[in-house]
Design a protein that fits this description.
CATH architecture of the largest domain: 3-Layer(aba) Sandwich
CATH superfamily of the largest domain: P-loop containing nucleotide triphosphate hydrolases
Number of domains: 3
CATH class of the largest domain: Alpha Beta
Shape: globular
Number of helices: 15
Largest sheet: 7 strands, antiparallel
Distance between the termini: 60 Å
Number of strands: 18
CATH topology of the largest domain: Rossmann fold
Radius of gyration: 28 Å
Structural class: alpha+beta
Helix content: 25-40%
Strand content: 15-25%
């Protein structure tokens, strides 16, 4: 099977999320630190998660899953992210809610299959013959447009590439020329051209070769490459199995039309496509050209899954290509969705037997205070200690999440009033605008006659 793979890169969107401060599990020399890697407290749960990461790395976690149980706002999602961080920065991490499985666009099994395959990565290493260097000179030759006699298009180019060791001038055809124009390649750009496919990759820019210099560069600044212009280059690319499924399906001609439709609407990916991808992955690994990167599939609100999805996941856990499955729930005894059977956490007992269960507990006032301090630093919010104490009291009285939610609007109010730090007055003003769950319940009771039933 020939699967042609292309790597698509783009600008990264960075934003502050609820768990962007989590860097790992906070383990140092095998010991759990009370405050580390964005975590505060939950030492027993983090120690249990640490042992799970050791089992995963040792290859002794096949056929099992993890279940995180605890009240709302006790760090279950943070714990799942911490496990993924401990496994490595390249570890694929897919997060979804149990309610998302019930999509109207695709079947439940198809949705879960895609989630599972997005959670498994493969790192492919290839040795390619390439021309690499900094552009010293580039000239385009233009010809008539085949469909518009009044327009010209670039039909070929002459490009001079230089490294620290040598210089080489190349004449390239229209296919490569069009890429050079599309990527706006200019003098001073460091590029490499794949000899086999003709793909052009722009690595960055150097200030040498007489190119214009700027204070701000769109492309990153790099040094002139060393060695010869024509060389063997190891190319490392990361994909998920779902990426390969889609790429392979789009290359199937008629199969692609059936899969994505004329309108481009995505349908169910055929079993034959996934089977051919699995064969390609196994062949690549057996030949030493790639390595599998098992990731983490985290399903929050697991009690929302029904009996059919539990049966599917139970069977999938026996597969060789299976990511680490982590489930989380804040429910006690409840009915298994799709049945009249009541079970702990709404999970069938045969599935519970396959899961290693970790409990989380409610935070103390001191732990809430430390978490708020970490979140304030993450969101670049400044406040005095007395304000931090006041927010910690709010967290104890209501919930940690509510106290965290007050940080950003309080800081915006302070800035609008010309202050650099949050005051208690700012927090009190914001509390009147955004009420807690407890206050919402009290409001409903007061206005019960006015609410619709």
């Amino acid at each position: 099977m020939g699967i042609k793979i292309e790597e698509v890169t783009g600008p990264r969107l960075e934003r502050i999320s609820l768990h962007s401060h989590i860097r790992g599990l906070g383990i140092r020399d095998g010991k759990v630190q009370f405050i580390a890697d964005g975590f505060v407290g939950q030492t027993e749960a983090r120690e249990a998660a640490y042992y799970i990461t050791k089992l995963i790395k040792a290859g002794r976690f096949g056929g099992k899953g993890v279940l995180l149980v605890g009240p709302p706002g006790t760090g279950k999602t943070a714990l799942a992210i911490g496990i993924a961080r401990e496994l490595g920065l390249d570890t694929p991490f897919v997060q979804l809610s149990g309610a998302e499985v019930f999509s109207l666009e695709v079947k439940k099994t198809e949705f879960l299959t895609r989630a599972l395959r997005r959670s498994i990565g493969i790192r492919i290493r290839e040795i390619r013959k390439v021309y690499e260097g900094v552009v010293k000179k580039i000239d385009y030759r233009y010809g008539k447009h085949p469909y518009n006699p009044y327009a010209q298009i670039p039909v070929s180019a002459t490009i001079t590439l230089r490294t620290k060791s040598e210089e080489k001038t190349l004449r390239v055809p229209a296919e490569i020329t069009q890429q050079l124009v599309e990527y706006n390649v200019d003098v001073g750009d460091v590029i490499w051209i794949d000899e086999e496919t003709g793909r052009v990759f722009v690595q960055g820019k150097t200030e040498e070769e007489g190119a214009e210099t700027y204070d701000i560069y769109v492309r990153r600044k790099i040094d002139v490459p060393s060695g010869p212009v024509y060389k063997d280059k190891e190319i490392v690319r990361n994909f998920t199995l779902h990426d390969l499924d889609v790429i392979n399906a789009r290359q199937q001609g008629l199969m692609s039309m059936l899969l994505f439709g004329i309108s481009g609407e995505e349908k169910e990916i055929p079993l034959e496509v996934r089977k051919s991808v699995d064969e390609f992955v196994q062949k690549t690994i057996n030949e030493g050209k790639g390595e599998l990167i098992p990731g983490v599939l985290f399903i929050d609100d697991a009690h929302m899954l029904d009996i059919e999805t539990w049966a599917f996941l139970s069977r999938a856990m026996e597969s060789e290509l299976m990511p680490i499955l982590i489930l989380a729930t804040n429910r006690g005894f409840t009915k298994i969705r799709g049945t009249d059977i009541e079970s702990p956490h709404g999970i069938p007992l045969d599935m519970l037997d396959r899961l290693i269960i970790i409990k989380t507990r409610s935070y103390s006032r001191e732990e809430i205070r430390e978490i708020l301090k970490i979140r304030a630093k993450e969101e670049k919010v400044e406040m005095e200690d007395k304000v931090l104490d006041y927010l910690a009291d709010i967290g104890v009285e209501n919930s940690l999440r509510y106290a965290v939610q007050l940080l950003a609007p309080s800081y915006i109010r302070a800035k609008e009033l010309g202050k650099n730090k949050i005051t208690i007055e700012d927090v009190e003003a914001v509390r009147k605008l955004f009420i807690s769950v407890k206050e919402s319940v009290e409001y409903i009771k007061e206005q019960e006659k006015l609410f619709l039933r």
